[in-house]
Amino acid sequence: MTASQLTNAELAVLELLWERGELTARQIREHLYSEAERAQHGTVQRFLQSLEEKGCVTRDRSLHVHLFTAAVTREDFAGEQLVGLAERLTGGSFAPFLTHLLRAKKISRKELDRLRTLLDGAGRGKA
User: Could you tell me if 23 and 44 are in contact, meaning their C-beta atoms sit under 8 angstroms apart?
Assistant: First the structure.
């Protein structure tokens, strides 16, 4: 997947699919361009084709109207983005990110507990 190369518009389509599940191109257009004076069908089709080529979206062609679904989870996408960012900014280390989030109090108690559980499991070889 080349998700790191998504445009903001492609990401908006993917967000819709994460939130709503399967959608037709028309439904996507209605959500994204409800205020548009001109139809944006071709634009949405280009976004969907690009997302499909990048492996982010699947198309169900079994019906007359094609249904589109996210082929990548939000968590997997975010993870891929974080790995790329860490590689570019910190030589692949996540410690600066975590340190910043902890100092800025951007991690909730629930998230912190989840991280502790994951780290404890990793320390025992269960990651």
Answer: no
